[in-house]
Amino acid sequence: MVEVAIPIPLFQTFTYTLDPAAERIPVAGSRVVVPFRNRKEIGICLGQSDGSGLRQKPKRVIEVPDDAPALSESMIALCRWIADYYVVPVGVVLRTALPASLTGAEQPTPRRKTQRIVRLREDLPTLMHRDKAFARAPQQRAVFELLESVGGTSTLDHLLGSMAFSPSVLKALEKRGLVRIDSEEVDRDPFALRIGEPARRHTPTSAQTEAIQTLASGSAGDVFLLHGITGSGKTLVYIELLREIVDVRGQTAIVLVPEIALTPQTVDRFRAVFGDRIAVLHSALSDGERYDAWLALKRGEKRIVVGARSAIFAPIENLGAIIVDEEHESSYKQGETPRYHAREVAIVRARNEGAIVVLGSATPSLESWTNAVAGKYRLLKLPDRVGGGSLPKVEIIDLRHKATQLADSSTGPGTGYSSVIRDELDSALAATLLRGEQSILLLNRRGYSAFLQCNDCGDVVVCPNCSITLTLHRAPERLLCHYCAHQETVRSACARCGGLTLRHRGMGTQQVERLVSERFPSARIARMDVDTTSGKWAHAEILDRVGSGQVDILLGTQMIAKGLDFPNVTLVGVVDADVGINLPDFRASERCFQLLSQVAGRAGRGPKGGQVLIQTRVPSHHAVRCAITHDYATFVREELEGRVSPPYPPNLRLANIVFSGTNDRATAALATRGADWIRDLLTHTAGDVTLIGPAPSPIERVKTRWRWHVLLKSANSAELTRVGRYFMEKFQVPAALRVTFDRDPVALL
Ligand code: ADP
Ligand code: ZN
Question: What is the mean pLDDT of residues 251-264?
Answer without folding.
Answer: 91
